[in-house]
């Protein structure tokens, strides 16, 4: 059987896959073991070139080094060996490979012996390669390989992430229902991190949706909806109807009347057991957003059209749109009621909550079934959307032009057409902001209240404003321009900072209450 690999045209035949071929692109590093010798073939090449170097017959194994830390930190690319089954999907994930020729017994075109033969010989060869390579060559090889992986769409870090994510899945009655907040086997005291948090599941849920795995998201949406109507109290007081829990846990309890049998139950936490006893304002907003994302990705609109789901949406909206004392269209919340769930000085009208509120209102408007009973709710929803978007775009926005306007503000204005509506004193502008603000770019401030502007940059609120179109097109471009200009401050060696700048010294002590989690 002709089992050569043709990479120049992007074809890999099925000795890897018996008869069919799988589609890839070219430009990759392969190491072929043939007659006891390992040859390196790299880059763009055609069938003839590969055929002249090595003809792979009776292929029984592919070896690959997975470059999780080596590649992406541009360290030595000679590392971790792992065996890959010779299937199309596996071949797509090869980052650097050795194909061992021989007459190994194949089952469906795949070697049935998955042990790593001649591993020591391979290791010795790589050790020799390492000794012969200069550090500059190693760096160049890592760079080339990293480029090749990106061109191929291969990402061993992503594979590792998926394995970790799947290991965190929680099952209820043998069905996946969500992912736990933290899965650290070395943690002595998990507190409530072994529970499924609504806000924490959102990125997991979006990942599952993009992967086409809809069941876990559907189960999560429907089971959390069942928990919404539970009545919880703290010191004889109950929160408003429609509140979604912050988290919930699957517990196994003895079945009533039968000590030998057990059943699984869901135990929610609405904040009455949480550290700080803070009710989650963002849970219901995230739930509506995920429900809309599920319908868009899966095409299954039957879930959002269910009577119980429609009722759940209305309960959340009524809770958020309820009349109060506030003069502003923004939601008034306490510290710790969102993703920043510890004291961080965001009480009032934090940007993150307003961006989620706007996005949830848009999503709910798309999903609510038109009926006479919902007319008043839809009218209130539309009015709030207009007022909220204007308020955030007009009063939360800061750039060099706006900064200069604030410096010229007149204070203590009493009139209906006052320019300084919130009585902001220019002296409260922090010194770091003047030096930090780029000439091109801008962002939404973290909070706005009477006589108070929180000039800190909060990543989630600003990025979600872009995603949800709360920000105008010009403002969205300016936010991304700011990220580009201040990359070292906002990203640097971390995935992304939650807030900038960090609190230090006495300011940290006063604002966080000396909370060591916010050090």
Write a brief structural summary.
This protein has 519 residues and is of the alpha+beta class. Helix content is 40%, strand content 15%. A hairpin with a 2-residue loop joins strand 8 (106-107) and strand 9.
Write the layout of secondary structure elements.
Elements: E1 11-12, E2 22-23, E3 30-34, E4 37-41, H1 47-53, E5 61-65, H2 69-72, E6 81-84, H3 88-92, E7 97-100, E8 106-107, E9 110-111, H4 119-132, H5 135-152, H6 156-167, E10 169-172, E11 175-179, E12 196-197, H7 198-211, H8 215-228, E13 247-255, E14 258-269, H9 282-298, H10 302-305, H11 307-320, H12 351-367, H13 375-396, E15 397-398, H14 400-407, H15 431-436, E16 443-444, E17 447-449, E18 452-454, E19 457-458, H16 459-467, H17 473-485, H18 487-490, E20 499-500, H19 505-512
Parallel strand pairs: 3-7
Antiparallel strand pairs: 1-2, 3-4, 5-6, 5-7, 8-9, 10-11, 12-13, 13-14, 15-16, 17-18, 19-20
What is the helix fraction of residues, given as a range? 40-55%
Task: Tell me the number of strands.
Answer: 20
Which term fits the overall shape?
globular
How large, in whole angstroms, is the Cα Rg?
29 Å
Distance between the termini: 64 Å
Question: Quick check: average pLDDT?
Answer: 75
Q: What is the multimeric organization of the chains shown?
A: single chain
Function: Invertase that cleaves sucrose into glucose and fructose.
Family: Belongs to the glycosyl hydrolase 100 family.
Protein name: Alkaline/neutral invertase
Keywords: Carbohydrate metabolism, Glycosidase, Hydrolase
